[in-house]
Structures are given as C-alpha cells and as structure tokens.
C-alpha cells in the first residue's frame, strides 16, 4: 500500500438514484431531530414534550394552522420567484429588496387612493404596481449583468439596503402618520386583502403561482431557454438564443413575483408598511428553494415546515418557558443537516485500501 495515498479521498458521485437521494435526506432530517433533543435537554426541557408542544401549538388548533399558512405563504411565493433565476445561474440575492419595493408600491396606492377607488380596483392597482416596481428593481442588476457582466450577487444584495433605506425615509417623512411617530398609518379597509378560511387570500395566489412556475419552467420555450443558459452560456449563444434578453426577462419575472409577495405581506399580513416589512423572508426563501431543488411542489412542503417551526417556537416560549432562541437553534440545525447532506448526495468518500471502482461496485 502506498503510504502517500490519502486516508480519505473525495470523488464525484455520478447519477445517484432517487431512492438513495431521499434516503440520505431522511437520515439527515432524523439526525437533526436527534441533535435537537440535545438542545432541548440543555435548555432544561423534555425533548418529547417539547416536540409535542411545537406540533400541538402549530397544528393542534385552527389559529395555529392559520398562523402556519400565514408564515409559509410569503416564503413559498419568494422561493418560487427565485427558482427561474437560480435555474439560469443568475444569483438573485435581492428578493428582500424586491419584496420591500413591492410593499412600497402597494402602500403608495393605499395611501393616496384608499378612499377614492373601490376595493377591487384599488387592490388590482396595488398588485400591478407592486409587480411592476419589483420587476424594475430586479431588472436593474440584470441589465448591468447583461451589458457589462457585473456581479449580480453583490448588486442585488446592495439594492436590498437601498430599498430598506427608502422605506425608512418614508416612515419618518412624506408618509409618516402622527408627527414624530416614525410610523405609517394602517391601510384603509378597502386596501386590505380579503380573508379566505381565516387567512388573507395571498395563500391562494401563491398556490396558483406554484402551478404557473412549474409549467413555465418545464413546458415552455422560455423555460427551456433558462435551462440551456443555466447549463452553458456558450451553448445558448451557439443555439441562437439572445442571452441578454433571457437574463433580463427572467430577472424581471422573478422581481415581479417578489413584488407581488410584498403586496401580499403589506396588504394582507401587516396592513401597513415599515422598513423591515420583508422580515428576512427573502433570505430564508433561498434556503427553501435550494432544499426543494427548485421543485415548486416540494417548496410547498418545506415552506409549511418552516411555518410549523416558527409557530412552534412561540408555543414553546409560552407553554414551556423555553426561550424562543432555542427554536432558532433547532431551525439552524435542521438547515445545516439538510444542506450538508447534499455533499453525500453529490460526492462519495473513498477510504485508503478501497478504489473508487470497488466503491462503485459496492453500491
């Protein structure tokens, strides 16, 4: 045996079967649950009781289920928005800002036309305005990327802070309610999304978007162009595709959906506008999209899981006195394990004394 041979070698795994992939993910999920038991024990809580409290608090009552749906809807909508960009290898990290400007556009119509337009017309204007501004906000870095090959990751990230800063200025300036309050007044009733089954109707919109994105990415010419461009820009150019147009168009679609999410959050959930209106959804949705492997239907399950964790956290705090920060640790462990397991899906470990060929034979 050659002593210079590394103890462990990493090699690329080719064509892992679906059964193996889901087995690895299931094991990662169970491992995260076991690690979480240690966290609960360290916090002085019985792990079994803690899990029971989280599940009963989030799914045991109608109010809990409604809160789960309310939390999951913007996550799902934003993950759907990011999917075409990520498929194209355009790393849109600006969903947070696109949601914010979408909410800002909705607030503009609610504040200026809330008492002048009937509710259906007003809500339609708010939705369209949010989509347009969200598309423009995402189109800026896409245009720069197409024209001058700028880094879209940094560009979209920086635009987040600009959007948040603009809303912060509006809070203490033109749209401020009571002077000195730094608060924008609540929307009038005509500018508030109606509820369906106890939750604003935004959840219906995002379910429609699930079907739209699935069909768009898998059964349309534009979806095919996105896939080709994501695989190889040179191949796309050789096939006669206009890379610049595809890049800008896809980013604008992504921004428009994020803007629509901003409208749903501002009009449905919060019924007002403030600087932190996106509340980290734009970043968490990146994880949702990645865990779902850009599958719109898988995003539904993962978004609901995040909703259960979020609602379960508050149940832990009120029911067992466990700090809410513990739930954030649980969420972090879950994400770490589920993201980390992708390594074992895409790569294999070969130990000294076993060739890669032998390892393949064992599999």
Structure overview:
With 363 residues, the chain is mainly α. It has helices at 18-42, 47-59, 62-87, 95-113, 119-148, 152-171, 202-219, 221-231, 233-238, 243-270, 281-291, 296-320, 324-346, 356-362; strands spanning 8-12, 195-196, 199-200, 347-351. Helix 3 packs across helix 8 and helix 4 (95-113) packs parallel to helix 6 (152-171).
Mean pLDDT: 88
Q: What is the percent of helical residues?
A: over 70%
Number of helices: 14
The strand count comes to 4
The largest sheet, given as strand count, sense and whether it forms a barrel, is:
2 strands, antiparallel
Q: How do the helices and strands follow one another from N- to C-terminus?
A: EHHHHHHEEHHHHHHHEH
End-to-end gap: 24 Å
Identify the strand order in the major beta sheet.
1-4
Instruction: Evaluate the radius of gyration.
Output: 23 Å
As residue ranges, the low-confidence spans are 357-363
Q: Describe the global form.
A: globular
Structural class: mainly alpha
Q: What proportion strand? A: under 5%
Summarize the helices and strands and which ones pair or pack.
Blueprint: E1 8-12, H1 18-42, H2 47-59, H3 62-87, H4 95-113, H5 119-148, H6 152-171, E2 195-196, E3 199-200, H7 202-219, H8 221-231, H9 233-238, H10 243-270, H11 281-291, H12 296-320, H13 324-346, E4 347-351, H14 356-362
Antiparallel strand pairs: 1-4, 2-3
């Amino acid at each position: 045996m050659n002593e210079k041979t590394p103890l462990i070698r990493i090699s690329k795994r080719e064509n892992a079967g679906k059964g193996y992939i889901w087995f690895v993910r299931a094991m990662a999920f169970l491992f995260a649950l076991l690690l979480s038991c240690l966290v609960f024990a360290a916090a002085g809580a019985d792990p079994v009781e803690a899990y029971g409290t989280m599940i009963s608090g989030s799914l045991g009552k109608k109010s809990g289920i409604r809160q789960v749906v309310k939390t999951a809807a913007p996550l799902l909508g934003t993950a759907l928005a990011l999917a075409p960009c990520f498929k194209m290898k355009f790393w849109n990290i600006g969903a947070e800002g696109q949601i914010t400007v979408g909410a800002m556009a909705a607030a503009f119509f609610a504040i200026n036309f809330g008492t002048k337009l009937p509710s259906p017309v007003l809500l339609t204007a708010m939705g369209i305005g949010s989509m347009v501004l969200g598309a423009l906000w995402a189109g800026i870095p896409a245009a720069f990327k197409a024209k001058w090959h700028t880094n879209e990751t940094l560009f979209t990230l920086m635009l987040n802070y600009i959007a948040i800063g603009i809303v912060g200025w509006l809070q203490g300036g033109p749209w401020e309610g009571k002077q000195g309050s730094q608060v924008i007044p609540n929307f009038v009733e005509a500018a508030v999304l109606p509820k369906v089954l106890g939750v604003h109707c935004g959840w219906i919109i995002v379910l429609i978007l699930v079907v739209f994105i699935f069909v768009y990415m898998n059964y349309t010419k534009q979806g095919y162009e996105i896939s080709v461009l994501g695989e190889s820009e040179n191949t796309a150019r050789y096939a006669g595709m206009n890379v610049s147009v595809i890049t800008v168009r896809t980013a604008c679609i992504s921004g428009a959906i994020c803007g629509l999410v901003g409208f749903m959050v501002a009009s449905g959930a919060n019924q007002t506008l403030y600087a932190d209106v996106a509340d980290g959804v734009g970043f968490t949705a990146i994880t949702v999209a990645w865990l779902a492997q850009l599958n719109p239907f898988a995003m539904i399950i993962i978004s609901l899981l995040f909703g259960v964790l979020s609602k379960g956290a508050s149940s832990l705090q009120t029911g067992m006195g466990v700090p809410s920060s513990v739930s954030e640790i649980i969420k972090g462990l879950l994400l770490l394990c589920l993201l980390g397991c992708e390594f074992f899906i895409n790569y294999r470990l070969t130990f000294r004394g076993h060739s890669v060929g032998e390892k393949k034979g064992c599999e």
